[in-house]
Sequence to fold (490 residues):
Amino acid sequence: MAFIDSTVVNVALPALQTNLNATAVDVQWVIEAYSLLLSALLLVGGSLGDHYGRRRVFLVGVVLFALASGACGFAGNIHQLVAARAFQGLGAALLVPGSLAIISSSFSEDQRGRAIGTWSGFSAITTAIGPVIGGWLIEHVSWRAVFFINIPLAVLVIIISLWRVPESSDPESASLDWLGAALAALGLGALVYGLIESSRLGFNDRSVLAALTGAVVLLALFVMTERQVPNPMLPLALFRSRIFTGTNVLTFLLYAALGGTLFFLPLNLIQVQHYSATAAGAALLPFILIISLLSRWSGGLVASYGPKLPLLIGSFIAASGYLLFMLPTVGGSYWINFFPPVVVLGLGMAISVAPLTTTVMGSVAENHAGIASGVNNAVARTAGLIAIAVLGIVMLHLFNHALDRRLADRNLPPSVTRSLQMQRTKLAAIAIPEDQEPATQQRIRRAIDESFVSGFRCVMVIGAALATASAVTALFWIRATPGLRAVQKT
Fold:
């Protein structure tokens, strides 16, 4: 459920713009509302399972996720959908860490590796087929079916969990850091609100300034709180390890590039390149399959070469993939324009992901490996959360600038120009006035599409810069020694 939802909703964004009259800022919130709650409460979700029972908290998460999915499907406007997506993120924060924790506690040590491997395999399969199934449902049923599909899955999960999954908990688990969780959620929420709404209102708007100022204060209070509470949600002591800090900085940069850039790819494919929703969903299949097939091989690279070399090479290859995304214009074949960058990006991420996870787990003492993995997961999700907000600002600014330049040469009637100006925040989903001649409509459409591609290329340059920065981080912060657990250093 969670892995399908993390990939399928991006394919639905163009349909949401069309059917709910949503702007680009609105569809950013569809992604961000979910990611915000999941990122901020992921660590708390794992702790709740340890404290109150992993199966119990997992089932609460599944029920919340299913109810929120139903609310998403029945949403009458974009604001209702965003609110429902936030509750869906809350459910995901309870079920995602709980699923792996249940497997770890339910199998003996000699069986656990195979069980986790099965879990990873099914995760990869659902991540791959999710966009294709979602695209088909959008094309042949409705965008609402993308959310309704979670309900029968949830019923099945609940039955299996009650029937076959044993309850488990950690009787020695510490008290929960509710204050830290609240400060993290509010701080990230204020930051994302300020960044996203600045595209619509401008940075001089009082609400935007208040949100960004509040974000700085709340996140500073979060850090201070985590240093003082006895059982922090985010143990800052872990960051005394230079390698742990470095791998998390690298994770943030790499996943900021991935989440921020791929947000715009389905919009490009469907609205500009005129792919069907199914074809757009299938466009990233090579990326996911390459990561799935090569992850075991790339994990073995650490034992042979150490983590530094794979992370360096993988990050540079990923940067090359982003640069290749700059080549396509409007129109052309998928196999020539988009298949090569998707494959190169997939190869770069495949070489990077497993060594990155291995390095994180090996950078701290073994009894802290679980929380280290949780922190790294939260960092990756937070990176995507912030990147979508920031790159949304960049995209809208560049699109507007390019559109102004192109429309100035078209000598359009003032009424048409005003109509286009009012719809700028829709990006490539701008509706062209129907009272114009077909040739004029075609020229306007071309100007809009070319303006979107212009912004898309700049977003990909930023993605390449972030991936290159992650390679530089690996060069200076990651040790080259193969096959050794890192010693914690100050």
Notes: Residues 321 and 345 are 4 Å apart (CA to CA).
